[in-house]
Amino acid sequence: MTTAPNPTGRANTRRSPEPMFWLLFSGGGMAAALLAPALLILFGVAIPLGWIQAPDHQHLHSVLRNPITVLVLIGLCVLALFHAAHRLRFLLQHGLRLGGARGPLAVLCYGTAAVGSVVAAYLLITA
Amino acid sequence: MTASGSGLAPARPYRQPVSRLWWLRRRSYLLFALRELSCVFVAWFVAFTLMLVVAVGSGPEPYRDFLDWSARPWVIALNVIAAAFVLLHAVTWFNLAPKAMVVRLGGRPVRPAAVVAAHYLLWIVCSIIAVWVILR
Question: How much is the ipTM here?
């Protein structure tokens, strides 16, 4: 993370967006780690297999209408999507050695996350 | 492109080509690759959650349909795999936390084990709150 010497003495105006993506990555990693296992095991495994009875519609609807739930879920979805985009980007770039397509790969990953975030927020607000 | 004699352009050092399947060579590499692959299932979790939200928002009948769909064998199988990957993500994430952040209390760094323990405690609390709110 060293920067080139700056002989002009002027402030470096070309900032890398990398720290912002890393912040979104770590925030999303934390949010997903804290909430995704419980929610996915509950709705994806325990309820479908009949271990736990599904909550009735009216109750679940009122939970999802609560502004706090909406805010938490928007935060979780947006951060988790950018977390996944960041990891996927480097998984493809380093794991499958696609470094040649670095630029398009980054645009595709973060772009999909951005579109997904807007869709997620819209769905959660209007649900 | 030749560097012979002139000394203008130094020859590029030789870099051994790396196979696309380098992550299959060792167990630790494979675990790293699986951990990174968990991001696909984190994205699936977001999609699955949004499908549930839309179904609940559309009324009791679509919610019923969603529950029936989520009980199909292939959806359960997918979600079991996804849950395993999301758990792998959570465990590796919390175990790496003390390497990513150095917490200081009263000028002294907190022991790494304590940082990990605090994260696991927070994980348990968040999970209990989420399940309690949903099933209450």
Answer: 0.86
Q: Return the C-alpha torsion angle B127, B133, B134, B136, nearest 10.
A: 120
* Tens digit of each residue's pLDDT (9 = 90 or more) over A40-54: 999 999 999 999 999
C-alpha distance from residue A1 to each of A7, A16, A70, B35, B86 (Å) = 18, 11, 38, 25, 31
Spans of chain B, pLDDT less than 50: 1-3
Does the beta-carbon distance from B86 to A83 stay under 8 Å? no
Instruction: Tell if the CB–CB gap between A35 and B126 is shorter than 8 Å.
Output: yes
Categorize the per-residue pLDDT at A1 as very low, low, confident or very high, splitting at 50, 70 and 90: very low
Nearest to A120 among B20, B46, B83 (CB): B46
- The CA–CA distances, whole Å, from B79 to A37, A47, A53, A122, B74 equal 11, 12, 17, 25, 8
CA distances in angstroms from A6 to A3, A15, A18, A114, listed in the order given: 8, 14, 20, 34
